[in-house]
Design brief:
Layout lengths: L8 E4 L2 E4 L4 H18 L1 E6 L8 E3 L7 E4 L7 E4 L2 E7 L5 E3 L16 E9 L8 E8 L6 E8 L6 E7 L4 E6 L9 E7 L8 E5 L2 E2 L3 E2 L15 E3 L2 E3 L5 E3 L3 E11 L4 H15 L4
Antiparallel strand pairs: 1-2, 3-21, 4-5, 5-8, 6-7, 7-21, 8-18, 9-14, 9-21, 10-11, 10-18, 11-12, 12-13, 13-17, 14-15, 15-16, 19-20
Length: about 280
């Protein structure tokens, strides 16, 4: 039964889809999350915006980490298919997740594989300053605490994943040296744990597009620091952290986990997102 006026079902480009926060929408979301977690395997953090959440949110993995927003997210949500996008303003909107060994992928000697994945719609595809999707990265010189960051580069807007060895002050990474086109994109940075830049891949809409290293200095492995996980920003000033390099635009989902994702994994995730968010990526 279609109940258009109640908001339980909405019209999308491919027909009617159940809305977020309705019984049918909640069922579809649960099915989507279960299918996504099954593909991702060792997923340690999964965030999807939820309209009832204002100042905090809860990660959808078994870890149930708390995301604390800088201020209320009420009014930042828009429906996209059966999901939501949260639109961040690029100047203050962000979230923080407490530090945990779950989000560190190295022990100063060896790295382990990892991935970061996000469904995004940037406001500016070639931002003046770097815009951060998610990071574990505090770069102030009073006590640098840097592990990894996934972001669009300053000026060019290149999707980039970097991992840093705090002991040696060196980093490895890869980027796709083409800015995203306008609109929604599924982007992923995945790392084999090899300790070299060639172990990093960048997928845009399920296509492996990385074509350049982003590296400097000597790198052995990621260190386990006390940096928090920062959604939509990085940090500076370890003694009194200040957020910067904010994300401007929409987030539909963000996930972080252990293990490297393949082209086949990304294709399956793209199709899953197309169905849930009523997209055609």
């Amino acid at each position: 039964m279609v109940m258009q006026r109640s908001g339980m079902v909405q019209k999308g480009p491919f027909g009617r889809v159940p809305s977020e926060a309705s019984a049918a929408g909640d069922q579809k979301k649960n099915e989507f999350v279960a299918a996504l977690l099954n593909i991702l395997g060792d997923c340690r953090f999964l965030w999807l915006p939820k309209s009832s959440e204002t100042t905090t949110s809860t990660d959808l993995t078994k870890n149930a980490a708390t995301i604390t927003y800088d201020a209320t997210f009420a009014g930042k949500y828009s429906r996209v298919g059966s999901g939501l996008f949260a639109t961040l303003d690029g100047t203050a909107d962000e979230g923080d997740i407490p530090d945990s060994a779950l989000y560190t992928f190295g022990d100063s000697t060896n790295d382990e594989p990892m991935f970061v994945i996000a469904l995004v719609e940037p406001t500016d595809t070639t931002p003046t300053a770097a815009t951060t999707i998610i990071s574990k990265w505090n770069k102030d010189t009073d006590a640098e605490l840097r592990e990894w960051r996934f972001y669009l580069s300053a000026t060019n807007g290149y999707p980039t994943l970097e991992l840093l060895d705090e002991t040696n002050n060196g980093f490895i990474g890869r980027q796709d040296q083409t800015a995203l086109s306008s609109g929604k994109h599924l982007i992923c940075g995945t790392y084999s744990g090899s300790g070299i830049s060639s172990g990093v891949n960048i997928f845009v809409d399920a296509v492996d597009l990385d074509d350049a290293d982003s590296e400097s200095g000597s790198y052995t492995a990621m260190n386990d620091t006390a940096a928090v996980v920062s959604l939509g920003h990085t940090l500076s000033a370890a003694s009194s952290p200040v957020a910067e390099e904010f994300w401007a635009g929409g987030f539909g989902l963000v996930a972080v986990g252990g293990g490297a994702l393949s082209a086949e994994d990304m294709w399956a995730i793209k199709e899953l997102c197309n169905g849930f968010f009523d997209l055609s990526i």
